[in-house]
């Protein structure tokens, strides 16, 4: 699958005709809401886990030297915590552009903290996209992040903002916090 997903996402018609749709964010969408929204609520999705396995050609790296950003990987029993936004359909043009490097809009159940559930959308970079980098140790991911930079700034900012946002949500993410620890050690050398 091509790394630019704009055209595929524009054909996603599942929520056509709706005035508003819930969007679940688990990466930069938690800490950088550069779009209008009607409501924002902490939420989670079941069966998926957050991993720094996606290459970033356009934000935290370049096509020649991609950075590493998060995507979701299916894992039975896993719960991924993040932030859900109630948005209107006009916002998708901006989001499709922002998430164009491999992320597809997928429909799935979103659970709020009070256990209410809705069907909403999540941008996920699936392993068949050409920018997917896949698994590596947390130490190797930290080293990769330490040397990466792109048009949106240093890759380390992405990681640190995400770790801070997860702490603010009161959510522990071992993968993210372990990479943060390795990165801090590298940067203090
Ligand atoms: C998300 O935050 O939900 C998608 C990945 C990203 O933009 O970092």
Automatic annotation (TrEMBL):
Primary enzyme class: lyase
GO molecular function: glutathione specific gamma-glutamylcyclotransferase activity
Keywords: Lyase
InterPro entries: ChaC, GGCT-like, GGCT-like_sf
Pfam families for the chain: ChaC (PF04752)
GO CC term, one of those recorded: cytoplasm
Gene3D superfamilies, A to Z: Gamma-glutamyl cyclotransferase-like
Lineage: superkingdom: Bacteria
Species, as recorded: Duganella sacchari
BP-aspect Gene Ontology terms: glutathione catabolic process
SUPFAM superfamilies the record matches: Gamma-glutamyl cyclotransferase-like
EC id: 4.3.2.7
Protein name: glutathione-specific gamma-glutamylcyclotransferase
């Amino acid at each position: 699958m091509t790394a630019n997903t704009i055209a595929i996402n524009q054909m996603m018609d599942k929520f056509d005709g709706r005035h508003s749709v819930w969007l679940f964010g688990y990466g930069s969408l938690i800490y950088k809401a550069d779009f209008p929204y009607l409501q924002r609520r902490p939420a989670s999705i079941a069966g998926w886990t957050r991993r720094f396995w996606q290459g970033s050609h356009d934000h935290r790296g370049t096509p020649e030297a991609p950075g590493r950003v998060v995507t979701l990987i299916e894992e039975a029993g896993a719960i991924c915590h993040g932030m859900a936004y109630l948005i209107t359909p006009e916002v998708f043009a901006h989001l499709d552009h922002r998430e164009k490097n491999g992320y597809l809009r997928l429909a799935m159940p979103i659970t709020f903290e009070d256990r209410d559930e809705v069907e909403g959308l999540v941008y996920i970079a699936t392993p068949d996209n050409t920018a997917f980098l896949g698994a590596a140790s947390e130490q190797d991911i930290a080293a990769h992040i330490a040397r990466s930079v792109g048009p949106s700034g240093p890759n380390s900012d992405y990681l640190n903002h995400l770790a801070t946002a997860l702490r603010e949500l009161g959510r522990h993410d071992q993968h993210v916090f372990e990479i943060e620890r390795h990165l801090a050690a590298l940067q203090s050398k």
